[in-house]
Write a structure and sequence with these properties.
- It is a single chain.
- By secondary structure, the chain is mainly alpha-helical.
- It contains three helices and no strands.
- The protein has helices at 8-22, 24-53, 56-72.
Amino acid sequence: MGFGGISIWQLLIVLAIVVLLFGTKRLKGMGSDIGGALKGFKKALNNDADESLETPETNAVKKETANSEEEKK
């Protein structure tokens, strides 16, 4: 028994049909596109999480330190 009543042989047959229909080159391209999209999605989630952790007080401190560094120049 495989996944939900589908045997390993049935999965292999479906995989073979998909490879015949699309070809390995096109499947590789689709895989890299999906991988790039997932990487971008994770990066966006991490950026949003970092921004949500910042409070107005931390933003004010960052601005003050940036202003003091500019005055030193």
